[in-house]
Amino acid sequence: MKFSISALVLVSLAGVSDAFVARSQKVSVPTKLNVATEPPTVKVPVLDEVCETTGVTLKRYMNEVAMLNPELTELTTLFGAIDTACKAITNMVKRSQLPSSETLGYQGEVNVQGEDQKKLDVITNDVLKRALRFTGRMGVLASEEEDVPVDLVNTDKDAVFTETNKYVAVFDPLDGSSNVDAGIPTGTIIGIYEHDENCSMDESCIGEDCTAQELNCLTNTLQPGTSLVAAAYCLYSSSTFFVLTIGAGTYGFTLDENLGEFVLSHPNMKIPETSSIMSFNEANTHMWDEPLQKVVDGWKNGTGKSGKTFSSRYVGSMVGDVHRTLLYGGVFGYPGDAKNPNGKLRLLYEGAPMSFIMEQAGGVSTTGKERVMDIKPDYVHQRVPMVMGSKNDVEEVIEAYKNAE
């Protein structure tokens, strides 16, 4: 990786492991479709070419972010926990098919969405909960495997949040777990919000009053994607990848197993604006909305706006499909259909975090009719139709829906 951006030199560090200069670059995130809010400005480290030989770990990168943005200092601790959890999960996934593994097969239970839980679903959920709990920075989380939002730190109703419990986490601990037995890539998706500082518990409350206040605090997880502070995913595949955004671009790290560290491998990722790859479950084509059917038919036949004939690439694991889309360009989607009008992806802990990452890489994410990041969830496990990826191609879908109105 090589950077030549002129910026203010903040610090020069000596030593073999620290043999690079960190600089600050203010990144104003461009306004996306239908965005009413001002684009955030976050300083990100710009690293000299020396890092090609020394490597920049995720831990070092987040330390630089904290130095440049003191208000994000606690994210360093949070991402340190997520980093460790992802390393633990990648080892579990690798060993899951061994006869001696205790993670093989189904748990024998069904989650709140009516899906059979594999042992790995439950185990990875616990790994992330424990990792986040012991940071001392978490108040509440919402997970695919939990029926309702969970208070991580305290059991007493008068201590749901404290001053140190600054963040709310939402996550899917093991996306694609239904295919893990076949060696299909799986992943972890996570979004980080700040909790509402006005959300507090009255120490003198009793009975139903306490329950109502607690519910109000827990529903703080129901925030739109535009309120995300950070988002990340970890892909467990031929390599283990960690991709994150703090609202100033998208950055990818790869696990160096010799070092036991995630090392920056894809700085400031940018998705191509036009592509020739689509990633849908085309078995459902006949049940899609007519505007989407027409666009996809045009892509197949080479009669779409780009004039390119698209090829199809579909893994069936959101993290795997989105990661490939980010790197090569393309369009990934799980739209609504006659059977599932709202699709199958969950807005809070799949749709919004992945949309944040995609938009920060220059892509677009939509339901066809509205920006996914703008939607405020009504409940934790709400589903949302999604089409995301290369800007020009996704905008072709948006335009088709507008013309159909």
Automatic annotation (TrEMBL):
Residues 271-401 form the Fructose-1-6-bisphosphatase class 1 C-terminal domain. Its EC number is 3.1.3.11. The keyword Ligase does not apply. Residues 1-19 form the signal peptide. Keywords: Carbohydrate metabolism, Hydrolase, Magnesium, Metal-binding, Signal. Residues 58-267 form the Fructose-1-6-bisphosphatase class I N-terminal domain. PROSITE patterns: FBPASE. It is an enzyme of class 3 (hydrolase). It comes from the Eukaryota. GO terms for cellular component: cytosol. One of its GO terms (biological process) is fructose metabolic process. One of its GO terms (molecular function) is fructose 1,6-bisphosphate 1-phosphatase activity. Its cofactor is Mg(2+). It catalyses: beta-D-fructose 1,6-bisphosphate + H2O = beta-D-fructose 6-phosphate + phosphate. Pathway: Carbohydrate biosynthesis. Homotetramer. PANTHER family: FRUCTOSE-1,6-BISPHOSPHATASE-RELATED, FRUCTOSE-BISPHOSPHATASE. Belongs to the FBPase class 1 family. This is fructose-bisphosphatase. It comes from Pseudo-nitzschia multistriata.
